[in-house]
User: Which sequence fits this backbone?
């Protein structure tokens, strides 16, 4: 398949003794402290071979010496790294084709970084348009190969790059946002589980639809019949639309952003649901939960933005999650449900469990966990790279 055959990268990054273990276990990251010697003349962003201290060949990685993760493997063993990238892309696309029927769900994460053996690359498909995000210098250099392969595999109408993540600055890159392939386009309508949603790849935060919560939206639909549902941090109303289709007695969408609520109204209307003004509340969720009467809702969804963006924030974020959950637990009707989520990478499952424990103790409610969830199916996490998990949700039953 290669159009131009290129020689395999020859410079060799040699690891310190013992540091080859994680690579043997297919962990793609090499920290700067694991490297014994960098080859002469190797430029940051280039591909290089990786070898153990005793010279054994381990695979191929792209490098960036200015980062603490100084190299990321794209191929293990002898496979040509460019061929490996094409194979990983093909495997990633094939997995999503096997998981989703595009007549029912046509917005999916096609490539999930390390989870698909493609560090630094995220690609989402929205109907026939792709959104690409590149977070590393090495992947930036591989962009032409990635683009060519994705075009071959998916024949998209357009590919739009939305690389505006903080990680790029650590890599020595700046933001890039713009059309990479195909014809310019405007806001799209996608379908998810047969529901319709506006997707604005160019302007939306993560395009307006968080794909990683798809399974939880479906669960909310299943559990909403007859319940009064509060969708906190509603953003574009994903959970609200599902709750409505599930037959909720009432759905209140609350968000601190008036613009987000406007999009939520739009998504409700797009699916033919009536839009009552009093069901869209512009408020800070903490203040709103304090203000509402007890037992006003039977089902509360808490899906806030990441409260911890850095490791140092984890403790402070834990406190914010606890306050939020305590307020919801104090107000939920007896027998009610709470779906509580955290997408903070640095608040792990254990800490999040402790947060909910503490919140329940302080609220004086008996709480049972009915369900635990991580990311949706199209956000795979490699067993060799557990760092790829970030989202966690608990479905709680409150006596
Ligand atoms: N649950 C949403 C995603 C949430 S994104 C979904 O399923 O699509 C986070 C949202 O929280 C944003 O819309 C933001 O405006 C809102 N937000 C952030 N801080 C808030 C606060 N303190 N109170 C209410 N909304 C808040």
Assistant:
């Amino acid at each position: 398949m290669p159009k131009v055959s290129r020689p395999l990268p020859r410079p060799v990054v040699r690891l310190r003794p013992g540091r080859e273990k994680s690579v043997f276990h297919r962990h793609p990251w090499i920290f700067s402290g694991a490297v014994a010697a960098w080859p002469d003349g190797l430029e940051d962003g280039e591909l290089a071979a990786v070898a153990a201290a005793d010279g054994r060949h381990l695979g191929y990685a792209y490098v960036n010496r200015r980062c603490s993760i100084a190299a990321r493997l794209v191929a293990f063993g002898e496979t040509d790294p460019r061929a490996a990238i094409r194979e990983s892309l093909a495997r990633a696309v094939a997995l999503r084709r096997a998981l989703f029927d595009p007549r029912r769900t046509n917005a999916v994460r096609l490539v999930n970084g390390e989870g698909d053996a493609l560090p630094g690359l995220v690609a989402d498909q929205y109907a026939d348009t792709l959104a690409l995000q590149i977070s590393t210098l090495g992947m930036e250099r591989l962009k032409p190969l990635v683009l060519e392969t994705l075009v071959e595999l998916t024949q998209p109408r357009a590919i739009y790059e939305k690389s505006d993540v903080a990680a790029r600055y650590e890599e020595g890159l700046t933001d890039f946002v713009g059309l990479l392939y195909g014809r310019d386009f405007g806001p799209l309508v996608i379908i998810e589980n047969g529901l319709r949603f506006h997707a604005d790849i160019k302007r939306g935060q993560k395009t307006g639809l968080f794909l990683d919560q798809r399974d939880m939206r479906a669960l909310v639909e299943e559990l909403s019949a007859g319940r009064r549902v509060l969708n906190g941090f509603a953003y574009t109303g994903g959970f609200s639309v599902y709750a409505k289709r599930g037959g909720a007695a009432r759905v209140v969408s609350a968000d601190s952003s008036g613009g987000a609520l406007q999009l939520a109204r739009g998504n409700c209307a797009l699916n033919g649901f009536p839009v009552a003004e009093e069901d869209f509340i512009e408020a800070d969720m903490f203040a709103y939960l304090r203000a509402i009467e007890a037992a006003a809702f039977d089902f509360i969804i808490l899906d806030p933005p990441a409260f911890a963006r850095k490791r140092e924030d984890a403790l402070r974020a834990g406190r914010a999650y606890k306050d939020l959950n305590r307020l919801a637990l104090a107000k939920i009707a007896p027998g009610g449900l709470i779906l509580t989520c955290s997408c903070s990478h640095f608040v792990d499952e254990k800490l999040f469990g402790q947060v909910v424990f503490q919140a329940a103790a302080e609220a004086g409610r008996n709480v049972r966990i009915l369900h635990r969830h991580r990311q949706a199916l199209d956000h795979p996490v490699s067993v060799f790279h557990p760092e790829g998990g970030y989202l966690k949700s608990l479905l709680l039953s409150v006596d």
Remarks:
- Residues 210-398 form a domain with the Rossmann fold fold (CATH 3.40.50.150).
- The chain has three domains: 12-80, 82-189, 210-398.
- The pocket of S-adenosyl-L-homocysteine is lined by residues 210, 213, 233, 235-236, 238-239, 255-257, 260, 284-285, 303-305 (CB under 6 Å).
- The chain has a mean pLDDT of 95.
